[in-house]
Amino acid sequence: MRRRRTGLLLGASLLILLFLAGIYCYQIYMDYRVPVSYIDRVMSVPIVENLDFLDGKRQETSEQNPGVYFGKALLPYSSDGTLYLSQDFVREEWEGELTTESRDTFLCTIADAAWEDKAGSIRDNHHFKLWLVGEDCYYELSLVVCGMPVMSLTTKRSEEQDLGDYETDPDRFHYDPDVIYYGEIQVFNPSVGVSRYEILESGVRYYLRGDSSSSFEKKSYSIGLLDAKGENMDASLLGMRSDNSWKLKGIVADTKKIREKTACQIWEEFARTNSEVNEEGPRMEYLELVIDNDYVGFYGLVEPVDAKKLGLDKNDVLYKSTNWPIPEDEDIQYAIDHQWKVMTYVRIRYPDSITDYTKTWYPMRDYLNTFYHDAGDERPAESKVYLSNAVDMLLFNMAISGSDNYFKNVYFVADVSETGDYTMRQIPWDLDLTFGEIVGGGFRDNETVVYEEAAVPFLRDTNPELIRPYLQERWAQCRETFLDTDNILNLMRANQDYLLNAGVMERENERWPDYKMSKNIDAIEDYQIRRMNWLDEYFANY
Questions:
Q1: 3-state secondary structure of 425
Q2: Cβ proximity of 445 and 406 under 8 Å
Q3: With contact defined as beta carbons under 8 Å apart, do 245 and 236 qualify?
């Protein structure tokens, strides 16, 4: 036993000696790669006292990152010579190392008090100076430290799409992309939803997305992750679900840039507290985006609402409403006759392949006939919806003042039984025009506007003893917890504080002066306080 202990102690001592020797050898190697004197290091980059050693060397510029790495990944870069490094502003220590992969080059920086104030340098959008030095030349670079994740897309090729014509396939004609781009993606995530710094690198397919958002100069995108063979690859991004499909939203309409994420967080609470039905909806995380060495600013990365998230089977149907007009029954029949997946902005999003258009369109057709045209089939109206979901959707939309989210920008999910009967649930989408922001731009300061889809008002008028007690009880439960006014305001403030501490505002406003970000949310807070007080009275008399 004593011999065994002695062996373990000797082994442990040897490992410690090897570790210390490794550190020593690494330091010697790093010093060997830096043939100039320096006073300290930050993120393994030597801090030099002066730049006299650059005399006689040729200064170069580059449209692409000339060779600055974080870990083993090239840092995102804009062609003006700026590098974008993602760091967690909460952690005091700088994370990771900035390196080159060439033995013939080294990095250096100069003394800068901002290196001693990580959080302040991030918040103030401080630009550090960095030099990449070779034997005969050097690059003078600017290093911006972003307090949120950074994504970089690099395009390698593009493919134009044949969208056909309207009469053949209006869904593809209107909503499919004109061009699909293929290339590489990098995502640098120091903190959001993860316990350690994560860097994802993979292939990517991406294209412009959004019908109304396509009119903005700042574009939104859909992206799909690809493996080395060009096949779909699932991965978790920013702590969200593992998947290959994601949305990048430019968040142009909302000048405060906090409305959509706040609304998503509130809907998550509705979903979490509804044990009857799956209400999984969109989740959003913030990031900064670089495309082809062009910094394009602040974006929201959003999980799509799809069959996977909603747990759909072969009988179920997923519809998406993208505009206000309500199809008439003859419109739906026209779509059936022509085998179309879209009619007056209501689209079939699942299943992908349809063999019986009459069957696939039936749930939405009957739903519209029941709640909008007073002409549905003989089943009781209350059996055609999940009552808890219909109530949740109304309470949610009223609480967030979803001016663009009653019928429009809603996913309708038809859970269809083997006998063909359906039960409809709703999931919100595209939540930027909320908390007083209205369609067409501007702020509506009237807290008494009603935003409701037709199902619950119909049931209130036809079966009040069923719907009213249930709605009022659910409202009271929510108001005591996540719909407490202070909780809503705290969500807004936390999202705003994150943006301010991440230092993104100055960069965003410089890049997109026509869509400037504003940090004053006093008007929203005042509106929301008045709105919640009015809703208490409104639902008490519902």
A1: strand
A2: no
A3: no
Averaged pLDDT score across all residues of the chain:
93
| pLDDT over threshold 80, residue 386 | yes
Candidates 75, 49, 73; CA nearest to 62 is 75
Give dist(CA 396, CA 312) in Å, integer.
Answer: 23
Predicted pLDDT at 349: 97
- pLDDT in the model for residue 6: 56
**Sign of dihedral through CA atoms 14, 20, 26, 29?**
negative
Residues whose CB is less than 8 angstroms from the CB of residue 335 and which lie 6 or more positions away in sequence, other chains included: 327, 341, 342, 343, 357, 361
Distance (Å, whole) CA 294 – CA 342: 36
Which amino acid does the sequence have at 468?
R
β-pairing, 82-86 vs 137-146, is parallel
Residues 20/24/25/28 CA torsion (nearest 10 deg): 170
Rounded Cα–Cα distance for residues 308 and 320 (Å): 15
- In DSSP notation, 473-516 reads HHHHHHHHTTT-HHHHHHHHHHHHHHHHHTTHHHHHHHH-GGG-
Which one, of 282, 298, 281, lies nearest residue 290 by Cα? 298
Tell the burial category of 177 from Cβ atoms under 10 Å away from its Cβ (0-12, 13-18, 19+).
middle
Query: Is-contact 52 91, C-beta < 8 A?
Result: no
335 alpha carbon, distance to own chain's centre? 33
CB 44, CB 96: distance < 8 Å: no
> In Å, what is the CA distance from 479 to each residue of 67, 469, 539?
54, 15, 11
pLDDT tens digits along 291-308: 999 999 999 999 999 999
Residue indicated by tokens 């209400």: 279
Report the C-alpha gap between 292 and 294 in whole angstroms.
5
pLDDT of res. 185 = 98
pLDDT digits (tens, 9 = 90+) for 98-136: 999 898 999 999 999 999 999 999 999 999 999 999 999
**pLDDT-derived band at 468, boundaries 50, 70, 90:** very high
